[in-house]
Amino acid sequence: MRCTVNLFTVMLSIVLCGLWSCTPTSYAEVDRPSGGNSAENQSIINYIDQRLESEYYWLDEVIEKRNSFNRYNSWDRYLQASLTKLETNLDDGYLNSRGERVLYSYIQPLSDSTRGQTTGFGILLHYTIVIVDSTNNLYGFIIEHIYEQSPAAAMGLQRGDIITRVDGKYIDANNYAALFESIQNNTAASLRLELRRQTDDHSFAATLDKGSYTESPILFSQVYDVDNRKIGYLVYQSFESEYDDELMATLESLAASGAEDVILDLRCNSGGSVTTAVKLCSALVPALHEGKTLVTIKRNPKNTVSQTESTFSFTDTGTIFNLERLTVICSDNSASASELVIMGLRGIDFPVTLIGKTTQGKNCGMDVTRRWIGDLHLEYAPITFMCLNAKGFGDWGEGIEPDIDLTTDNQMGVSDKYYPIPRCAWGDDSYDIALVSALAHITGKSVKHSDTRALPAGSDIIIGTELTHPIEGIRLYRDEEAR
Questions:
Q1: Could you read off the pLDDT of 191-247 as tens digits, one per residue?
Q2: Strand duo 383-388 + 293-299: pairing
Q3: I need a surface site. Which of 106, 159, 223, 385 has the fewest CB within 10 A?
Q4: DSSP 291
Q5: Which residues lie across from 133 on neighbouring strands?
Q6: 258: left (phi over 0), alpha (psi -120 to 50) or beta
Q7: Which DSSP symbol is given to 402?
Q8: How many helices (H) and strands (E) does the chain have?
Q9: Alpha carbon distance 262, 284 (integer Å)
Q10: Which residue, 269, 266, 277, 278, is CA-closest to 238?
């Protein structure tokens, strides 16, 4: 799985076997709370401090206020507690639906597992929880994606299905967190689910045992023939460099099938590798853009570790596609590297049409390091740079507005105020309002409710609550010493 912060797992305190080799910094000016702190915690906090003071984009204020940071916090609370003391770093994070600030910068234990062969149920849940029974205040979980050849796929579960009961239990305000985790993070030994399919409003049950399946950020691809025009469609979940070969092979397959246009679906893509974003854009545009700048990243001039400015350019253009335009499906879950693709292409005046909802608004990124400290393998990603396109523009911190906003009345004739809540399986060109609108836009049509099922039977959804979903960020990886 991609490395994201577990929403429900409480961090266990971990005793470290060894200390980081650097001598701990003394901060005599800090008030010492009762109880003090362990040397093990301090070793990790020193690692956090070292990078904040030498690389954090707002390092000037860090240096100014570092003596006010409470170094007797546990290491897993220290970064959040320190960075929220600052006033110049508001671009590091966003406010969630409860008005709480969520930082982009993070430090977390790194799982030894990566995408690939996984044991579990094969269900990825959407972070919006809906009310399925307002009288009794009962909730439902909406399926975002079902991985191919997983136990869930074998039982016929689909994207857009609403889970209404888990192991015979109704979902309510008291148990939704634990039940969400049992499905999303495969913590249950098995699952008995009751579900409702939105496209025809029928209910069914499924019993799942864990099994092996392969995860991939490439969720779906297909070529549509509309009015004798072939249109490629790719749903891409995360910019992960270890899957670059699979990404290029998928694009080559779409091109070989004769696709003249491409719909790039980034509605649930919250970011990832900047180098992968460059490869994707280069694969789409004509050769005339070879060598042009996609993005320039700028760090604090006082950064003592990395170059203060780095440029990433188009390479190997025109080898797969020679598109004249790109249609992108987006949402408020589209962030970071997804936004970089949009604004980077617009920076070379390549036409990009956005369909969906205003994006997250993350115009900054991280230099990611990984280090063993004792028995704990840590991934640390403070915000270290800002992004600018070839025109020097980088001001998309409030999000990028769509050309066709699907949450309100628009020129396509269909809307869904709760978009991007999943309504149906990927690739459904009758029910998926975003895909329907994108295909119609490319072929110069409008959409009417009378000739489409784009708003399905289950359109009476009521939002119950929304969990904080992880925003991955634009990432550059830097090697550190071996264990």
A1: 999 999 999 989 999 999 999 999 999 999 999 999 899 999 999 999 999 999 999
A2: antiparallel
A3: 223
A4: T
A5: 138
A6: left
A7: -
A8: 9, 25
A9: 9
A10: 269
